[in-house]
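Summary for the steering committee. The consortium agreed at its last meeting that each partner would contribute one worked example illustrating the joint modelling workflow. Our contribution is presented below. We chose a case with several input lines so that the handling of multiple components could be demonstrated. No manual editing was applied between input and output; the record is shown as generated.
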Amino acid sequence: MNYRHAFHAGNFADVFKHVLLTRMLVYLTRKDAALRYIDTHAGIGRYDLAGDESCRTGEWRDGVGRIDPQHMPSDVRELMQPYLDIVGLNEGEVLSHYPGSPLIAQKLLRRQDRIICCELHPQDHALLDQAVGRDRRVKVIEIDGYTGLNAFVPPPERRGLVLIDPPFEERDEFDRVARTLQQAHAKWSGGTYVVWYPIKDRGAERFAERIVAAGIARVLCLELSVADPFAEGPLSGTGLLVINPPYVLEEEARVLLPWLTGKLSRDTGAGWRVERLTDF
Ligand SMILES: C[S@@+](CC[C@H](N)C(=O)[O-])C[C@H]1O[C@@H](n2cnc3c(N)ncnc32)[C@H](O)[C@@H]1O
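What follows is the complete predicted structure of the assembly.
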């Protein structure tokens, strides 16, 4: 396990993932009924943008560093507001840290909701525990996220969202995600499952085809590229496969993704995609 998210926190892929995550959690918390958020690969929860790792790559500068709340069209601003509030990007605020997915969930969820975070790296687990572990709604567990997911579904609340956000260091990561997702979905078909993936080659497309071929319905594909994702060079394409998305997500993504692509684009070949892969 060499991957440390601190090198990448706040980059274009994090902005894409976290803006959409806030929209899904905002929707799910509209109903009073309790929900559960499960983060299978949680990271450390809060990232110092002046820290050594962030400074070495500077990736956040072409990600969250490009998000300026001024001159945002009003429809975009309305949808971005929960993200702006949590990250601290409103007018007059100075960005020093960037929140990870567990912190975003912690900010948006309510007293009746519960959060489970799996983080396998011992140091990252300890840092995450410091960041969010004192909240009695939150459990931070040093466990393999794939094993954890199957142990934690279905949750007692029978409502909620699972974020699967692996580092994709291993060649078989898409296989592991597909297998685990199918097992979890067989036990809890009503949950919202969100899988983050990098776009580099045909791996992401084959993964989506496999999920659809497994007979899982209500699969939405959301993607954003800041340059041609298949060209040589640093990661420039990212996606989320969402199973059982909130029904407003597709419409919201059609407002957010064109604007985000314009802001985050690095080169020709930038673009976005919102597509239903199955019947809804
Ligand atoms: C992409 S980062 C997570 C970022 C986080 N979800 C966010 O959005 O802020 C992936 C994390 O998974 C951890 N990790 C790697 N393999 C794991 C596994 N099998 N189970 C749980 N955590 C794992 C890594 O240590 C790393 O912190």
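The first strand starts at residue 36 and ends at 39. The chain has one domain: 5-276.
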